[in-house]
Structure formats: C-alpha cells, structure tokens
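Notebook B, p. 112. Complex prediction, attempt 2.
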Amino acid sequence: MSLAAPRALRVGLLGCGVVGSEVARRLVENTDELAERVGTRLELAGIAVRRTGRTRPQALDPGLFTTDAPGLVKRSDVVIEVIGGIEPARGLILTALEGGASVVTANKTLLAEDAGTLVDAATTAGCDLYFEAAVAAAVPILRPLRESLAGDRVLRVTGIVNGTTNFILDKMSTEGTGFATALQEAQAHGYAEADPTADVEGHDAAAKAAILASLAFHTRVVAGDVHREGIREVSTAVITSATQIGHVVKLLAVCERHDDVDPAAVSARVHPAMIPAGHPLASVRGAYNAVFVEAEAAGRLMFYGPGAGAAPTASAVLGDLVTVARHRLHGAGSRGSGHNDGRGDPAPPRLAILPIGAIVTRYHIALAVADRAGVLAVVAQEFARHDVSIETVRQEGRGTDAQLVVVTHRATDAALAATVAGLRRIDVVREVSSVVRVEAEDA
Amino acid sequence: MSLAAPRALRVGLLGCGVVGSEVARRLVENTDELAERVGTRLELAGIAVRRTGRTRPQALDPGLFTTDAPGLVKRSDVVIEVIGGIEPARGLILTALEGGASVVTANKTLLAEDAGTLVDAATTAGCDLYFEAAVAAAVPILRPLRESLAGDRVLRVTGIVNGTTNFILDKMSTEGTGFATALQEAQAHGYAEADPTADVEGHDAAAKAAILASLAFHTRVVAGDVHREGIREVSTAVITSATQIGHVVKLLAVCERHDDVDPAAVSARVHPAMIPAGHPLASVRGAYNAVFVEAEAAGRLMFYGPGAGAAPTASAVLGDLVTVARHRLHGAGSRGSGHNDGRGDPAPPRLAILPIGAIVTRYHIALAVADRAGVLAVVAQEFARHDVSIETVRQEGRGTDAQLVVVTHRATDAALAATVAGLRRIDVVREVSSVVRVEAEDA
C-alpha cells in the first residue's frame, strides 16, 4: 500500500430533485466521515440538472450545477443517477460505464425495463453498477440477496414494496375507511402522488418485483414479465372478510421458484392478497416496506424499514457510493479490474417465466347467491368440476343479502379462473363479489 | 479478462461439528451452483478435525479428514473456521491470514474477545476476513451494517440475538410458564445446552453485542466492555407486570451512541427489558432473532430470521465464502490487493465506552410495601431525592400483598441504582421486588 495520500474521487450527480438534493447535502456535510469510510475524499464534481438558475439547497455551491450531463459524466469517477425514468437516464448510465466510471442508481423503472443492457455494459467495462435504493429505499435487500445469500438457494420472495398502497390498505383495515378516503389521506400525507396510478395499479411494485426476482433467482425478469393487479378492487367488504378468517389484506409482490412444475421456471406477480394476521408481514404498518425471503438453508428472513423518502433513499445511495468508491480506490470495480461483485447479477436470462395460469395458491371467493335450498350443492359442484378443492364454506345473510364465502385449497390460477367463469353462468349465483388470493399460509 | 478457465480455489474447513458438517455437505452437493456464482470451482481441500476415524457425514470422502490443521491451512486459498472458542481457532486464523489465505469464520466468542488482532492481521496481509455467521446466523446483519449503511450514521442497534432466551421468555409470556419449566422445554427442543449459562446469563448475547457495536460505530468494542445481565431474575410477576402496561419482556442487546453526553462515546449492554407490544421486536417469537437498527438517514430498519441452527449458519458461511472467493478470483481480497471491503472494519478503537451508570433509560420498579397511608409520599420523595422523575405509579393489592408499581421517566442508571438503594432503606418498603428497564419506547 502506497504511503502517498490517494487522490480524491470525483462524483457526478445526475438529477437534483428530492433525492438528489438530499444526496448532495449529505455528501457535502458528511465529507469527513465518508472519506474515513472510503479511504479517500469524495469530491462532488457537479450536479446535472435540466435548468440552472432554480432555487437549490443553500448548502450547495451554485457553481456545481450544470445542464451538460454528458460532460459531467465524462469527468466523473463515479456517477450517481437519480433522474428516474428511461431516458436520458439510460443513455447517461451507458456513457458513464463505457467511459469507465462506476454507477450508482436508484432508478427502478429503468432497471425493471432494461437491467440486462446496463449489466452487460457494466460487465464489458469491468465497472460497478449498484442500485440498492431501487427497492425499498434504505432497507438493505438487494445486497443480501446477491451477496449474503449467494451460497444458498432462494425459494420465494414475498414483499410489501409499495408504501402508498400499504398505507391505504392499513387505513382501510384499522379504521374501516373506504378506498377513496384512504387514498385522499395518503395524498394529504404526501405518500401518494396527485396521479396515483403507478402505485395503486401496482406498476411500482411490479418494477420492484422484477428486480427482486432477477437477483433472487440469478436470472433476468423484466416488469413486463410480472403479472399485475392493483388495489382498486379491494372493498371494505373484502377487508372485513379477511378479518373474519384472521387475515389482513396486503398488496404483495411474490417471486417464486416452481421446482415441482419445472425447476427451470420462476414467476413474479403483484396483487392484493389475504395473509394470516400472525405472519411477520401482517404487522407492517403505514407506509413501511418489508421483504420476506425463504431460502433453502437460511430459512425465513425478513427485512423491514421505510420504503421511500428522501433521507432513506439517500442513505442507500451513499452506502452504494462508499462501496463502489472503495472498489475504485483499491483497483477493483473500475475498468479492466475483472472484479464482479457489483455488476448486478451477471447471469443470463436462463430461467423461464411461468405464466400466471400455472401459479398455484389459495383463494377467498365471495358470492352473492339466491337464498334457497341446494345453492351450496350447485356451487360446490362447479368447484369440483374444475378440480378446485374447497377448504371452508360459510353461508351468510338471508334473502337478498345471502352470500357464500368459499376458501379453497391450493389450485392453479387457470383452474380458479375457469371456476369463476363457470360460477358466473350459474343462475343461483347473482354475483361473484370478490376473488382474492390467500398467501403466506405456510409461514 | 483471460479466456483460460480460472483455476479452482482450495477451501480448507477447520472443524466438523454440526455447522462444519453442514458446510461441507452443501459445498460438495452444490458445487455447480457455487461455481456459477463465483466464476470458478471451489474445491474442498480438506477438513481438519481433532480425531479421525469418527463417524462422519456419508457424502464426504474419508480422505478429506486430517488432524493436521496447520498443514491444511497452508495449502488453502480460503480457510473456513467453525471450531469455535479462542484457541486453536485464533492461531489457525492468524496462520491463514499470514500465509495469504482469506478467512471466513462463525466464531463470535473469538471476535468479541479479540477482533482487533484478527482485523489487524487481515489488513497487514491484505486478505479478506468475513464473519456474517457470528451474529444471528443467516440473518444478514453485519454486511448491511458495514456496507449498506456505510454512508449513513447508525445511532442505535437493538437486538434480540439469543434464540434460547427468547424462546424461554416467549414461553413464559404466552403460556404463563415459570422460568425453570420454560428452560427445560428449551432444552427438550434442543434450543438450550445442558449447561445453559452462556445463553441464560447473557454471555452469548454480549459477544454478539460487542460485534454489532464495533461494526455499527466503526470502533472496537469487546465482550468485556458490554454490561451484562441475564434472565434468571425474570419472574412470572415481571412478565405479568409488563403485560399490564402493554409491554413484553425480551433479552435485548442495546448498542448506542451518546451524542448528548459525548459524541465520541458509545455503549453496549445486554439485559432483560420491557418493550411496547406494538414494537416490531415484540413480535419476534420462539427462537427467532431480530436486529432493529436506527440510523440518521435510513430511519428504522429491522432484520429478522432464525438466529441459530446448522443450515442457517451454513448459509451465512457459504455466502461469505462466495464473496471472498470472488474477490480472490479477481485479484482483490488476496495478498497485497489493497482491497478493504472484507477485513472487518479497519477503524481503530477510537470511541470511548460509556459506563453503565451513565446510560439513560426508563425503569419499571415493583415494590412490596406496607399497607398504610403516606407510603406513596415517602416512596415518591426517595425518587425525587435522586432526580428520578416518575411517569406513573399504580397501587395494587391490600395488606401483605400491597405493592407499588412505578414507571419512571428517563434517568441514568446511576441515579436509578441510588434510588433503589435508598428505597431498600425505607421501613415501609418491605422489598424491592423487581427493577426492569423499559426500552424502545420512541419507536
């Protein structure tokens, strides 16, 4: 080891929104502590923004701001990308990697859409690509999946990875609030955007599911591979039904291996589900996130924490920054080093994605039915016709309120869909009021 | 990157008890998957045992066993130490590092006693030293602390890090079992040793607290620095009292910074404590472990999973093995590489350890008192005399069962100890029945 002080590393920051400002501020304010962690100083080389002249955090030297993002990338040893979205983020990250810079990004949308291109570019360049902040903000989940569990075999990942929908479902569950009111409260708290589509329809969770599945199973899964259902259909009646069977409703991201069907197949899906009130995921309240991992040897692990927010996201970005900076300082993680810890998972897309029809789980089905003798027999026959085995049936209400609540044993989504279609054709069934998956029963 | 296939890495395994056997078995059975993760084959070079000729796991070639541990160390690229205890483990690890081998160990006792010597040796040799399995088995907690949170500032770590005592306290809490019966059940389940001292007296948790504090605060804390109280004094009355104030009793390892007293001081302590039933740590059941981390930017994180067992421990060891093997393959983490991710935290012991007397927390105190007017005034005066502010007092029972239950505001341990000594001198106080800290209130 050389006795000369190593040169400072130049950090280029792309984007200065809520997360970018927080990263910049902490980078400047904690410069001594960071230097101690890394072994050399991290110098903020510039902050690329769309327009200069806006009001910016006071602690930051106005001279740092530039609209020339490609120029900043070229003079940086490490590039932090917190612009979000596909372009210009992708182009700038590729420019950075091709130029031999390490990259830290929080961009879940881009990673879920096209991680392959980025990982390949990092591998070719021999540079680091870290993205812990892309899933569950500061909750360290990607690094444990790709490093701590690298000697194990992950079987299933079940996550609450969207704080907005968890806040809404938690409100509905604990206070009996309806969906619309709960959504308004989430917006008032700043947990939901004015246009809540990305959260409520499950797009955000699906992007994270794709990233989790890719790392957990050492393959490539993109957002388009993820079956997705949002929470708009979750009524207060569904929440009440869940409570009656000792469950709570959560929007889950479920990534699974399917060794029984095909050892070379995995799946990823996002949908509301009823989970037992005693499951560790059930106690995840408000806008918190948690990821439950089941691995062959490690057993059941859970990672829990705030899934969003400027400070937690900045924490994850800076943790990655310290790692890639250490690698560069010591000759790893930069051009030609051959070091491969930090390039995403270099595995090819070798595992098939099982279609949703083949996925096996349990279901909770509520049916509005005619209040007459023999209804149960007719309904039960329809389940039997599709080989869907019933675990419990409860008859509730009388007259026009008469309903049947059925909880099934494990069945494929295809068999269940066929059953539901069949039920809709039966004249004593007035309506299929709700169909909700029941998950995490064996934990 | 070279096109020639890289040579296999020789792995020397020291110890073949429950954990060692499991590591060896998985190393042999999952050799293809591990090779894919690492980029080259991991070859089990030998297994050092005290005596050969014993019955060993069938999957293992008898020719692998040797009693010449130093010889095995010398011909290994990576050494896995799962012997436990101080010697010969320490000597063999030092020999390995001096010889340029990377080391993976699960040895909490040794790390809590003398991590400094090992970390210094690893730094001098430029070799990796990983030990995720030493705390909470497969729950990834050390890597998140030293890598994911490297750009943040950890303020407090509160852990349930001993499965045996958590099993016992959980039994007492949920089934009303006494301590002795709960301990017997733990022994019957294989969770507790025939001699349960290390668990019950908090030695095991204290070793883990020392390791957690060292990594969380980038300093050196040894087991002897950790204030330690076991769970033998936890009566069913204490458990019931906790329930009455909406709390549960857990054996906690608490590692804290004390910015208000001295920014250069930290503390580590292990003791039973009452925590609110709604706190994430309260729902950690049976022999599970969990570590709750509070960091400046990241906020509140929790890591949860099985804290012991052969398979979970082997998962953590193999995760570390994949990492150090990748580093070696790519020229980092081996002699002279200068790579420093994996040497424990290279920081010197720069932070002072605050003595227990200076630690501030809340207390739950039960007093058997004379059933007469004015008792409360006398008792309250004693608290006031030592500047310990009372939050609530509850009078219970009559006659010889009369008691006062006091919950204090935050006070130093020294002030509380003086108060308790004073209470013992008051004639209307027949007995100070219990003094239990109340923690995790602000979460």
